[in-house]
Amino acid sequence: MEDFEKMCHQEYQTVQKFLLRLSGNAELAEELTQETFYQAMRKWKTFRNQCAVSTWLCGIAKNLFYTYCRKPKPAPIDQVPEKPGEDFVDTLLDKEQRLQAHKLLHSLPEPYKEVVTLRTFGELTHQEIGALFGKPERWARVTYYRGRQMLVRLMKGEEFDE
């Protein structure tokens, strides 16, 4: 794991710059860079040194970017039809879903539960959360993203892997 952390520090900017050139969007590049390193961490034991680490990482990043591009995009705000008046059943379902999300949030392992709670309900920035934990802002972003993904999987009735 120490080798992986060292590699992350060495290759982070390379992957981020690659994604920035590919996407032209700094925010998207940052998010995809984080997901790239998450996927790389999960697959680290399968890496066979048949190519440079940066090449392997950029391959993962490229695949994530293409997957992102294939996802349907939401309609522009001016093309979304106005929502008719909500009835009581719709409101109740939303409240039930929110209650379920709160219950599932408490089943997340630490630090994901704490970070998602601080970001969502405490409205703290990633920088502030990182400072609370004595970690860099990037750690808070990645932890929040992964916690949010775990919560979404739980709400869909799926299992999550740490």
Describe the structure.
The chain has 162 residues and is mostly helical. It has 2 domains: 2-70, Rna Polymerase Sigma Factor, Chain: A (Orthogonal Bundle); 104-162, Arc Repressor Mutant, subunit A (Orthogonal Bundle), CATH 1.10.10. The protein is 69% helix and 0% strand. The protein is built from 7 helices and no strands. The protein has helices spanning 2-23, 26-43, 53-70, 88-105, 112-120, 126-133, 137-155. Helix 1 packs antiparallel against helix 2 (26-43), helix 1 packs across helix 3 (53-70) and helix 6 (126-133) crosses helix 7.
CATH fold annotation of the largest domain = Rna Polymerase Sigma Factor, Chain: A
CATH class of the largest domain, please? Mainly Alpha
Give the total of beta strands. 0
Order of helices and strands: HHHHHHH
Q: Architecture of the largest domain, according to CATH?
A: Orthogonal Bundle
How far is the first residue's CA from the last residue's CA? 15 Å
* Major pleated sheet: none
* Residue-averaged pLDDT: 80
Discrete helix count: 7
Identify the overall geometry.
globular
CATH superfamily of the largest domain: RNA polymerase sigma factor, region 2, helix turn helix motif
